[in-house]
# Entry
Amino acid sequence: MAEELNAKEAADYSLEEINEKDNEANKNESTEQAETTTKKTSIKTADLSLILDIPLKLSVIFGKSKMRINDLLQLGQGSVIELDKEVGEPLEIYANDKLLAYGEVVVINDKFGIKLLNIVSPEERITKLK
# Structure
């Protein structure tokens, strides 16, 4: 019986050793993955630093309208052009003519501003570049 316990303890010990080795291997893999991710992040950051100072043209579209040339020629001071946007409808915000976000008008120190409501996902932005 003592021999059976010793054999069982030996088997248990072997399993414990195997589990420890597996845990160590998993830790090493996790460490390697973390190091790889850190390297990739630093590379991406380094790549981004090259373009961070490039100026962009931001545009906010309050609305659009179509008219005939005759109507355009009739416009004068005080004329009102009806736009297609409803009051309270989010406005489109473009960066270099590419849709970036939607927002609403706010007033900041007697100047207009835009509060961002919804930013277009990076995937959508990339597909629109094509």
About this structure: Confidence is low (pLDDT under 50) at residues 1-8. The helical segments are 2-49, 69-73, 122-129. The first strand starts at residue 58 and ends at 61.
